[in-house]
């Protein structure tokens, strides 16, 4: 699992994180990302975590200082302010073990062609601005993505979820809990949670059959429909529906549907007191072993371990 791989960064002492501020300092995207990381550095101390900030010009013209994580950050409202020296910025970013972007920065990297074949979380409001060069990026409607060594986040309020997820993956749940308490944050949304209007914004007019199919899935979590049923209800053959999902969502309908159900199950495990068996049934799993196996394959832990995480971190 990509998030599990991030834990190796804890061995770096200090771990050096660089945020390239390509926008305004008071935007929600910037504050949501910077504040949790700043607090993590405060709690952990300079010998374990160092968070630095650079402007695009200063970063591109800088020396050979090494960072372990580099993120290009700008709010979606600043998408038209792409740095003139973007290519130089990208070349330097590639020197870090993990690198990527938040908000409008994701659009700039995609347009530059460096996210081809990479699962990418792009702000839904910027889908219309995607250059044809960026069509090879695998845009998802998720809040953020970790694909190999590439990190992308849709920005806005999701920036806090993204930063806190990185903190937990690298330094553990205890450090994350300290930051959540300091910032009065009750719950951290997972990377699989979706921008609510992303699919409609991107595909609504061009691919109404696709959005209709996803809406059917979302409305039938407890009693899942078959792929053939969904195809028939939206007026497509099974093969046509599978082609649409593969082309635009990078997944087969059955896999996408399974992940929707598992994401709902994870939410119920963390936010309700329903038993694990009840949660499985509410999300369309008649077999407890199938539920546990599928859940573990997607999230890296079992439903029981997920529920235990809630009990050991009641503020989550």
From TrEMBL:
> Keyword 4Fe-4S on this protein?
no
Q: Which PROSITE patterns match?
A: HTH_ARAC_FAMILY_1, HTH_ARAC_FAMILY_2
Domain HTH araC/xylS-type residues, every copy: 211-309
What keywords sit in the KW lines?
Answer: DNA-binding, Transcription, Transcription regulation
GO molecular function terms noted in the UniProt entry: DNA-binding transcription factor activity; sequence-specific DNA binding
Q: Which Gene3D superfamilies match?
A: 3.40.50.880, Homeodomain-like
Question: What protein does this entry describe?
Answer: ArgR family transcriptional regulator
What is the native source organism of this protein?
Massilia glaciei
Q: What is the lineage of its organism?
A: Bacteria, Pseudomonadati, Pseudomonadota, Betaproteobacteria, Burkholderiales
